[in-house]
Amino acid sequence: MILYGSTTSPFVRRIRIFTHAIPVEFVVMDIFAGDHRKILIEKNPTLKVPFLIDDDVNVFDSKVIFRYITEKFELTAISWHQENALTLIDSVSDSLVSMFLLSKSEVDTSDDKMFFNLQRQRAKQVFNELEKQCAAGDFSEWHYPSICLFCLLDWVQFRDMADISAHQHLFSFYAANAKREEVIDTDPRD
Ligand SMILES: N[C@@H](CCC(=O)N[C@@H](CS)C(=O)NCC(=O)O)C(=O)O
Questions:
Q1: pTM of the entire structure?
Q2: Among 8, 62, 148, 159, fewest CB within 10 Å belongs to which?
Q3: Domains of the chain
Q4: Interatomic CA distance for residues 76 and 103, integer angstroms
């Protein structure tokens, strides 16, 4: 199995951490330029990472890759409540990744504009909800939703896209998991 992705993407990192004990080759791509962009165009029409190739099977999207690996290795599936938590994490990740790409495109995302305001409002609502779920113990085990939450929290700090310090439970969760070997091994700052 070959996982294609960048070292900075929170969506790629979650799969790298999830598969750290599974033999998956990781191909690092610069998805925005050169030969890697050509490979991306050839192999994944969504033009996003991650994607996974397993012989003749090509799987797009981290959520689907998670399901593919879970089925292939007969791992424990996640509950509907956890699926919803993943949707929360994905929605804020998508919003903030879009805002980040806009900033990189020299768009001033601090403007009082409908699109930016909607993303900010979503991020606020979702972080509040995740804080509640964290307080309720939903992320007390190191399962796939926890991995995804960690990757989001670390990415927003790495890219300076949100301040989570006011969210006491999210911050404690982050600190409690930051020293895991697979987390350190996949640090986007390295
Ligand atoms: N829903 C996708 C989202 C993946 C995604 O947004 N990846 C970003 C990197 S963090 C990307 O490839 N962006 C390229 C682009 O938007 O052109 C997943 O879960 O895999």
A1: 0.97
A2: 8
A3: 2-72 (3.40.30.10), 80-185 (1.20.1050.10)
A4: 39
